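Entry 14. Structure prediction run on the chain below.
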Amino acid sequence: MAEQSANSADDRLARLAAPAVTEAEATPPRHPRGGVAARIFSGPLPWLLPAVGALALFYLYPIFEAVRLAFTDARLFDTETQLSMRSINSMVGSSTLGVILRNTLTYTVASVVGQIALGLAIALLVVRAERARLRGTLVLRTIVLAAWVIPAIANGIIWQLLFSEAPFGAINSALRMAGVAPVAWLSDPGNAMTSAVIATIWQGTAYSMILLYAALKTIDPALYEAAAIDNARPWERFWFITLPHLRAALVVNAILILIMTLNMFDTILALTGGGPGRATEILSLYAYGTVFQNFELGRGAALSMLLLVISLSLTVVLIALLPRERRG
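Output returned:
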């Protein structure tokens, strides 16, 4: 009897020492009704569906529709279309396409490089002025931003007035006052592309300045202080400190500006209309004219697809230049 009492006492002590098991832990997990579908729709997917639907409606559908139209002989005011390779064959076989692509390459490379270089220079100037506590940095940023908020079509009109070869042209008037012969900015094929690039750089520089200014502000000033202690020259600080830390920002900036420049046509439309001849006609302006002047909807869609392929290809190349930790 004494032994049984001792055993029962030990059992009671063991049960008291054991962790309590709640009813929820004792009950085996139940799978929700509906299986996989219920688990999916109980997560974040229902909240994302409206955004996905909006993106598909406003971005994917126009792309699919443009691809479909590229394989038709559609014209802008036709009610009936047929599947055909005529639009693509007409685009590929056109003798004009080579000139357009060459103009597009010249305009895009010059504009992108100019915007990044000038934007970086202004950003460096603003940051340096802020560190030196100089006045006027806010005014400088405001002046640069003023060009950015102007609509592109208005930007083309403004520069058309500035480059005008008439007596009231601002730039040629200043040249006459300085005793320099006027320049045929818009009527000379060699100068017209330069004029278009200048107008584009003037407007787009602010975007590069904002992005690169923000990137410069993230660089630790202690790096420059250490370089100054080591008697590093200004160009050495720029080359070995500033540029490596700006690599990701420069690549992202180049991608965004590249896409915007390839799709820009309104500035050139207002400035030169693509002329003289086809000296300033780029691919986006060519596609616009094909649809809204020649009413060739199928061929215009094919040109748009070509522009999309070029943009995506160049974007992939630039993404490869990003640091590995910034990809993905």
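The two ends are 75 Å apart (CA to CA).
Filed with the rest of this week's runs.
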